[in-house]
Structures are given as structure tokens and as C-alpha cells.
Amino acid sequence: MTQYVDLNSDLGEGFGAYKMGMDEDILKLVTSANVACGWHAGDPGLMNQTVGLVKKEGVALGAHPSYPDLLGFGRRKMDLSYQEMKDYVAYQVGALDAFARAHDLALQHIKLHGAFYNQAMADPDLAKVLMEACLKIWPDIYFLALSGSPFARAGQAMGVKVAQEVFADRAYREDGRLVSRKEPGALIEDEDLAISRTLRMVKEGRVKAITGQDIDIVADSICVHGDNPQALNFVRKIAQALEEEGVVLRAFGQTK
Q1: How far is CA 74 from each of CA 34, 112, 174, rounded to the nearest angstrom?
Q2: What is the dihedral of CA 77, 85, 79, 179, to 10 degrees?
């Protein structure tokens, strides 16, 4: 049986005169794009430009909303009500959806960013509130969630379209959470090790946690980054390794 996996990357993360990432290059390698919606990065011109690049390369389009934290790149915790967070997601995804429609594209998915992602992945009540709010506006939308997270489980219980993602270069805890970037060993810096771990997550549904314990994992999508030449080369190697193992790269929303 043919095995499929998606490669997703966060794009459009510059702002004004500041450019971040190598979007044109990474879009030639990935199958899904998470485009910043203006609150941790991105601006109207860059959002429009990035959506145009996504269309040109035939990549699936997703919205990447965050907390309103441009200075902190959306990585700082914020004390917000559920209603505020619902409004923030609708506002940002709605903005990107407008550019998508201008380019005759439909949104495939929503993937939260940074601290917003971390909070929602761990809080099933927040996950349910956000998914219900988004589905009223975008009834066919997918949600990209950390594999095995309370967010992913809440979505599955609701019958929502959830794609579960893994991270090629991050260490895992035994409960499936990512090891904090502030802790030693959080990043897998050995390319060969990162690639072999990624292949095992896709092919076997298993990964070794930072404690050495094997844990189950679901790899519908692999999150990769191409914000510098070294990272871009790493993505090329992952894509090549997957293809050599007979795994077909395909957006998770593409069913045929």
C-alpha cells in the first residue's frame, strides 16, 4: 500500500522592510504552507505575495494565526479569554482567506503559531472552542495539530478534520509533548539522526523520547523550516530520504 505524508512549513514571516526565511525555495519542496496572518509576522503586501507564490508552486494553503505579539514573534504567553482568542483567530484567518479568494484558492487548514499553538495543544476545552468557532465560518477546514495532543484528540472526538504533525528536528517527552527549546537536547542537531527519526515516525509510527523510551506518534505531516541555506538543504535531504523509502509527498487535504 502506498504511504503518503505531507511536508509543512511556516512562511510569510517577514514584516515591512524585513525579510525572513527563504519562501521561494522552500515552496519548491513542501506540500503545505502555513502563512503568517500579520500578528506575529506578515503584513498585507507580504500575505498577498506569499499566497501568490503558494499558488504558483501548487502548494496547499493554510493560515498561521498567533497572539497579537509582533515584538515577541508570538512566542510569549498572554492571558486572554476564550472569546478574545476566538475573535483573534477569526480576524486573522479571515484576512488570509480574503487574499486566498483573490488568488482563486481555498484554505486547506489552520495551524496556530508559537505560544498560541502551545496553549491550545495542551487545553482540550480551548481546542474545542476554537475549532467550533472556525467551523462556523470554514466548515471544511482542517486543523494541523501536534501528534497525540489534547487538541488532536478533541478534534477527533468532535469528528473534525485533524492532521497530526511531527517535528523533524525536535526532541519529544514521553507524553508526546515537545521538549522546550530552553532545555538541553531540545533540538536534534545531527542531520542523519533527525532524518532517521523522521523516517521512523512516518514508517513505523514510533519515536524515541528524550528519556530513551519509545512512544507512539502519528505523522500525517512533518513540520520543516527553510529559513537559511542549511535548513533548506536539510529539507531536501528529508524529502529525498522519504521518496527513496517509497513514501509519496502529498498535502494531507489531497485525498486522490
Answers
A1: 14, 10, 26
A2: -30
One-letter amino acid for residue 161 of the chain: K
Contact between 154 and 131 under an 8 Å Cβ cutoff? The reply is: yes
**How far is residue 235's CA from residue 220's CA, in Å, rounded to a whole number?**
17
CB atoms near residue 255 (< 10 Å): 7
- Residue 172 is classified by DSSP as B
CA distance 151 to 70: 25
Pairing of strands 247-249, 214-216: unpaired
Q: Give the list of residues 6+ apart from residue 79 with CB closer than 8 angstroms, or none.
A: none
> Do the Cβ atoms of 213 and 174 come closer than 8 Å?
yes
Fill in the amino acid letter for 203.
K
10-27, pLDDT tens digit by residue? 999 999 999 888 999 999
- Answering whether pTM is above 0.90, one says yes
Q: Is 149 in contact with 172 (CB distance < 8 Å)?
A: no
The total number of residues written for the chain in this structure: 256
Q: Which of 108, 103, 143 is nearest to 126 (CA)?
A: 143
Q: How, if at all, do strands 206-208 and 214-216 pair?
A: antiparallel
What average pLDDT score do residues 18-40 get? 95
> Using 50, 70 and 90 to split pLDDT, how confident is the model at 178?
very high
Assign 242 to helix, strand or coil.
helix
Write out the DSSP string of 73-93. Answer: TT-S-----HHHHHHHHHHHH
Write the DSSP symbol of residue 185.
T
Amino acid (1-letter code) at residue 218: V
